[in-house]
Amino acid sequence: MRRTHGRRVVSKPEAFVGMFQLNDGERASRCARPVTLVACADGVGTKVLLGVKAKRLHGLGVDLVAMNVNDLITCGARPLFFLDYIAVHRLEPKRLLEVIEGMSEGCRQAECALLGGETAQMPDMYARGQFDLAGFAVGVVQQGRAIDGEGVAPGDVLIGLPSNGLHSNGYSLLRKWLARRQLKLNRHYDELGETLADAVLRPTKIYVPDVLALLDGYRIKRVVTGMAHITGGGLPDNVGRVLGNRCSAVIETGSWKPPPIYAFMRKRGMKRAEMFRVFNMGIGFVLAVRPRYAKGVLARLEDCRASPVVIGSMRRGTGKVLLR
Amino acid sequence: MRRTHGRRVVSKPEAFVGMFQLNDGERASRCARPVTLVACADGVGTKVLLGVKAKRLHGLGVDLVAMNVNDLITCGARPLFFLDYIAVHRLEPKRLLEVIEGMSEGCRQAECALLGGETAQMPDMYARGQFDLAGFAVGVVQQGRAIDGEGVAPGDVLIGLPSNGLHSNGYSLLRKWLARRQLKLNRHYDELGETLADAVLRPTKIYVPDVLALLDGYRIKRVVTGMAHITGGGLPDNVGRVLGNRCSAVIETGSWKPPPIYAFMRKRGMKRAEMFRVFNMGIGFVLAVRPRYAKGVLARLEDCRASPVVIGSMRRGTGKVLLR
Predict the structure, then answer these.
(1) A157-162 and A309-316 as β-strands: parallel, antiparallel, unpaired?
(2) What is the pLDDT of residues A288-317, one digit of tens each?
(3) What are phi and psi of A218, to 5 degrees?
(4) Whether A202 contacts A168, CB under 8 Å
């Protein structure tokens, strides 16, 4: 990858998002603050297989947008547009429309344009009724205002934003467990207050409006030092990614109440340690915030009903995430 | 899609590329010519299946970039960066590296950055050894300099740039024909001057340097009125897309010499009419050029060894493409 980069790529190859500076010629001006384009690609993994099985495709469209735009905002970028790639066995307009309506709904929530995409029909590659989804999002951040975790320091407060369930990660483990336990997706469980399908196929929460509203409130001060979208690898891996090598994170796992699906899975044989490595466990997005601004940030996030929770803090360390 | 668009999306939903204007805040300047971002998504279709069978993955990486950047430049945009989505049965680092090296090579040819991507491991979705590829490219064009075919007029000269073979379209038809004729990929044919695998798996030609060098030569004059990347649907569909409803195109199919693979397929039972609907037939990219500039354009394209050929012209009509 690196040999294609040049000076205009300002992100690290291992980052979730790629960052590309528009130069003077492209801005066609030498006047003022330039911008950096931010881009990422992601799919929804094997949640697709479960969505197809339960005939719920709309939610997968929302998931696809969510997985991308939630990654995009971790660096402080504002999503501009989204494109999709849908690969199918055969074009079935009604099912395809359901996915596209979901993506459209996701783009509305993320305040970005569904700009285009590609639908590929490949009967020899995908089984009947099966398909795969990939998405790409592009956003923009002012140069010098990108949040890359470099500023994370001991004492920073970790604020979590609740997930609404499993979002779009851990579905290989989930599907194995469903098969082993022979659980029926369409059965209603009182513990869940809904059917199992409702609980495991709820579309991923989109954090864009809440996070951007927060950042818009601090245009000069550097209040948020790092952000993490909690995806595959759970809290340890994703919070770990923004730590650098001066900090460790301590997360108090008792400080929030996970959605009932987690207790449901735990009760039916899933191991807690494995769950923390695979699922978001109830926290879908984490912000590291300078301690003196934590109260203000919490108030702002409460104002937009984001239900923020203090889940831990940074301390001097060597890049570890400790779950307590 | 439309409900997510707003005034900043300036492309039509049916266009191959999406166009998104950066606004004043994002340029952070009210000084000078603003730019439009251009984006597209594409895969390489079932050429993947043939590439996997012949164990040639490097070329598929080049193909993936080519399919996207060749689309991107049809509107006059300069590619900035590229992202990929690779879905696999199981991660096999060596094979994956081969694809990534191909993409890196493609990005170098297209003078854009390989900015990032996503690799998804989904053993239940993809068969052993199988995978799918999707790509996504973003470019930039000065507002008011985008070429959208609106300016195409009767009399415009159609200049074709040769393909180097099948590029990345028509592989479902090709694979059916290969199976029916029981042809061996690794056999050398004198008619081809190479093995069948060499002929059908050659990486797609990337037209970016030639087309951008041409456009850079005319920064004020509007010389090129429309461009088409010849993909699925062949010359009729893809040239047809830039005609509007004031013109028809007449293409003299004897005016260029296709690569030997086309005569090879024709001789072995493939139907000419079907081939024209599915393959590029030797012309991978078409430019519609104002007649008074045709000579100059040809000279410039010859200077960069693009081997341009006059393949036809526009005449008054109703959006038809006539092959003669």
Answers:
(1) antiparallel
(2) 999 999 999 999 999 999 999 999 999 999
(3) -130, 80
(4) no
User: How many angstroms separate the Cα of B37 from the Cα of each of A41, B139, B162, B225?
Assistant: 17, 6, 28, 20
Surface of A (99-138) touching B: CB under 8 A: 100, 104, 107-108, 112-118, 120, 122-125, 130, 132, 134, 136, 138
Q: What is the spatial distance between Cα B29 and Cα B32, in angstroms, rounded to a whole number? A: 8
- State both tokens at A278: 């695979």
Q: Assign B293 to helix, strand or coil.
A: helix
Q: pLDDT digit string (tens) for B222-268? A: 899 999 999 999 999 999 988 877 899 999 999 999 999 999 999 99
Look up the pTM and report it: 0.92
Question: Which residue among B11, B115, B124 places its CB closest to the CB of A20?
Answer: B115
The reply to whether residue A85 touches residue B87, judged by beta carbons under 8 angstroms, is: no
Q: How high is the ipTM of this complex?
A: 0.90
- Of B45, B104, B114, nearest to A122 by CB-CB distance is B45
Spatial distance between the Cα atoms of A102 and B133, rounded to a whole number of angstroms = 23
B228 to chain A, any CB pair closer than 8 A? The answer is: no
Mutating which of B4, B11, B119 best tests the A interface, going by the most A Cβ atoms within 10 A? Answer: B4
